[in-house]
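Cross-check.
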Amino acid sequence: MSGGFNNSAVNGRGRPLLHKRNRGAIAPGQPRAAVPTKSVRWVVAVLALAATAFAQNMSTGGIMAPPASVKPAGLENVGINQRLEQQIPLDLTFRDETGKTVQLGDYIGKKPVILNFVYYSCPMLCPELLIGLESSLKVLKFDVGKEFDVVTVSFDPNDTPQLAAAKKADILKRYHRPGAENGWHFLTGQAQSITALAQAAGFQYHFDKKTGQFAHATAIMVLTTEGKLSQYYYGVDFPPKDLRLSLIQASDNKIGTLADAVLLYCFHYDPATGKYSVIIGRVIQVGGGLTIVLLGGMLLLLFKRGPDHQLRRQGSSHQYVR
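Predicted model, tokenized:
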């Protein structure tokens, strides 16, 4: 037979088996199609060039990305420059949430202060910063208004004391600790005072006329009792342990416990990371000192008991039965 039947293959009933041809297969004796080698080489070359360009772009920060040192348009003057150990001007004039005229020096001199910049109509970052700060402070055993104060300053000269009062009421409702209303201050002011304080603290921001909003970074600054910039913490989430140590250090160890003093001796604030890191050498010193104290205490106890204390104890424990 022809046309797809194989005469040599017969099923059990004497009928020929039907084999279907594979359309993609090449029949015996049929010549194979020529491979278009030029087209293949051209495709390979294009792919190689694309891969090389992709690798070069990724190595410089992404496809068509600017160098890491170049800020996007509109953000050239936005950021935070740390000015550690610098004094902030205490004679700058602002208004508190009640509309009363105040100076920064009214809040500085007795306790450490956490300074932060926001604007009260901010739709995103500023509320996140205040909520994050409040959440971290709630974990601390220290109380706002007792061991330390918080000063929140609006960098929008159009903000009013009424907006400041509303923001303060919202944050204190979350914090919910007695006396906090006397320790957390929400200030507004004129452009001259705002600019002077922001420059002294290294806080840079930019007003976008198209959106009507401010471009700014988020951070808090810890001030000493003298009003000097002690530490910076970036973002909207602040580790409570680091905040506690920073407040103790800014108070010149006037708050906190003996254990906190030991921790401050073993840990060091790193301005680059905004965190405390352990000092191995000092940990070894503290550990060695504790070991010496324990051994000395044991030797003193044994000396007080005397060499025959154990013998007397064993003799008194014997019982004689008749």
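The first helix runs from residue 37 to 59. DSSP finds eight helices and 14 strands in the chain. Passed to J.P. for a second look.
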